[in-house]
Amino acid sequence: MKLSFTFKNIILPIRMKLQNTICLLIALISFAVISSCSQDKKSTTEKLAASVADQITIENISFNGDTSKAEMVMIPGGVYMMGADNQQASEDEYPKHKVMIDTFWIDQHEVTNDQFAEFVASTGYLTTAERKPDWEELKKQLPPDTPKPDESLLVAASLVFTPPTQKVDLNDYSQWWSWVPGASWKTPEGPGSDINGKGNYPVVHVSWDDAMAYCKWAGKRLPTEAEWEYASRGGLINNVYPWGNEHVNIGKPKANTWEGNFPNVNIALDKFTGIAPVKSFAPNGYDLYDMAGNVWEWCSDWYRNDYYKSVNNPAGIKNPKGPSDSYDPDEPYTPKRVSRGGSFMCNESYCSGYRAARRMKSSPDSGMSNLGFRCVK
């Protein structure tokens, strides 16, 4: 099954249930261009502060000056075969192809709430989920002649995982994703929620654009898809998972994944029903944590479904940075970036995102409650 929050797989099922106006709102969800801090009762001072913060973009973010490699791991350069390892592989994981990677440094774990809070405090940055959507940008990702929704619907919000209480059709992602106004990295379940006591949890509801802004401030960058997979494999050769070939459901819990019937029953043998603190499970061979499960992680590359075919060469390709543009046949109007690693929602019946070769894709402005990132140098 393809894991992509797409027009075909989310919007069409919802359209059978909702009126046209609400339906378009859910379309906005699937592309997660979500934003702004505008509440009617805000004081003039609060509104002014929000307006100023709204002007802070990656262009005016400055490096914080920290050149250390604290909590990073050096990954030695080498050669590996990138792509599909077993019968669960999707078409976009083929063909398996030779890749050469130079030495690089990578964060030992995902960027945490505490780390992201430091960035926000230093810069005043507002994430995509906290900004008012720009319809002119939004409509570029939608089919031609899509009507503009009412302004009241263009509000700050993000996608929140809301598990149903009964079995549902796994082709209808609207059964477990909700569009929640006010959801953001600080309020991950929406208004009334917070991240108090969760400073060491991965930050979520961050778009690719937000991750890039953080990287610029930290003097780092996002990993390429090839670097991410190479690091994920932990020095193992053609193994299915970052820990080897032992099935995810055999033996002791090896990652934060969904155990039970997705999405309504999680028996939580791994002790978690949602996101877990970083370093909750054993690291891989490179001493990296959460290279499988917990949260999906942004990579720098554009996504193309046919990219591996274009770089398949017996001589191999060195330090690939991905295609020059994006194409997803499921959503041809929407440019997408790659994410990797799977999340706490991944299950054998659903996406098996914890496999080392598994790919996912989302528009750069997407944010959701199971998507984060880590950085490299």
**Lateral arrangement of strands in the main beta sheet:** 10-9-7-11
Strand composition percent: 5-15%
Q: Residue-averaged pLDDT, rounded? A: 87
Helix content: 10-25%
Please report the distance between the alpha carbons of the first and last residues.
Answer: 33 Å
Choose one word for the global shape: globular
Low-confidence stretches: 1-49
Order of helices and strands: HHHEEEEHHEEHHEHEEEE
Class of secondary structure makeup? alpha+beta
Brief characterization of the structure:
This protein is α+β, with helices and mostly antiparallel strands.
Task: Please explain how this structure is put together.
It is globular and about 55 Å long. The protein is α+β, with helices and mostly antiparallel strands. It is about 20% helix and about 10% strand. It has a single domain (about 5-65, about 70-370), classed as Alpha-Beta Complex (paralog of FGE (formylglycine-generating enzyme)), CATH 3.90.1580. Helix 1 packs antiparallel against helix 2 (about 20-30). The model is unreliable at about 1-50 (pLDDT under 50).
